[in-house]
Design goal:
The chain has about 375 residues and is an alpha/beta fold. The protein is about 40% helix and about 15% strand. Strand 5, helix 9 and strand 6 (about 195-200) form a beta-alpha-beta unit. Helix 8 (about 150-160) packs parallel to helix 9. The longest helix has 24 residues, at about 280-305. The radius of gyration is 21 Å and the shape is globular.
Length: about 375
Amino acid sequence: MHLSRRRFFQSSFAATAAALAAPRELLAFTEPQRTPQPGGAILLNGNENAYGAWPSLIESMKDALSLAHRYPDNAYDPLTQRIAALHRVLPEQVILGCGSGEILRICAEAFTTPELGLVTAAPTFEALGHHVRSRGHRVTQVRLNADHQHDVAKMTEAASGQTGLIYICNPNNPTASITPRSAIESLISGLKGKELVLIDEAYHHFALSSPEYVSFLDKPFASDRVIVARTFSKIYGLAGVRIGYAVASRDIAARMQRFALPDSLNVVGARTATAALADTDGLAFAIKRNAADRDEFLRQAKQRNIQTIPSQGNFVMVDTGRPVRQAIAHFRQNNILIGRPFPPYETHARISLGKPDEMVAFWKVWDKLGTA
């Protein structure tokens, strides 16, 4: 259930005092570089849902604006209960966050220490690593394997003894690749210490057609060390509203809740997320539309003999055949923003799927890349 302001400040006093004692530079956090606000360029760089929220969600947002002068407390329990029912867990196992970004920050604070660091892939979504480093804690990166999957054997080896948290983004960002469920289960089963495993399923809805992908919420694994994060930013088109959540065991959820903000969701976000989970038809349509857009992108790439990493996301990693910064600059000069560099993929660019007319513009600019 939602933590009230009074209970929040009582339970988090000790954690706050400890944080205030830390050097100021360790508390600073730098988000991955954000792009300019829309207004001119075609934005194919943020893995956003280019179509935005569907009509029922827009209506829910409009309705919720009438409550903008009220604190969002009364909107938390309905959302928590709906998430719990969806995943067949207790409400006490659900932690809400200001996007899944807050969930990652909570995990960094709750489960890493100067002695117990983070093991993560390279490349993967960087926010958790930034949070951990900002606290002065160790981050160990393990390169993806030749199939662009998490190298679970090397991650298990890297985690031995001095790790508090292991992070798996599946499908992975920026590669949009799947690490098979069996491999992740092998990693979890092979852990000898008290490491927790955070599985980030931000792109869950785009991977449902993959036989190698099985959600750890749809099919829970018998281990209390698993934390699963989800977001409403992607398939639901609500990236700007900031709604995320995690599901964990009651004990782990209680530890996480100590580090959560007292009102991390706004009333518009909480009410809209509740409506989103009720609109299964809208969700099914959005999933189908993304699959069609991805298929068309891959068809266009194949026509041009462009090498791509097999995608189970709403974005595709393509080999530009040149240093990726050159490709990024070329598209920027033509009023299109694509993904930033992701070492060690020195020639690959991450392209977020846009609307059909935006992708027509993208391919026109791509076809001029060879002469740039």
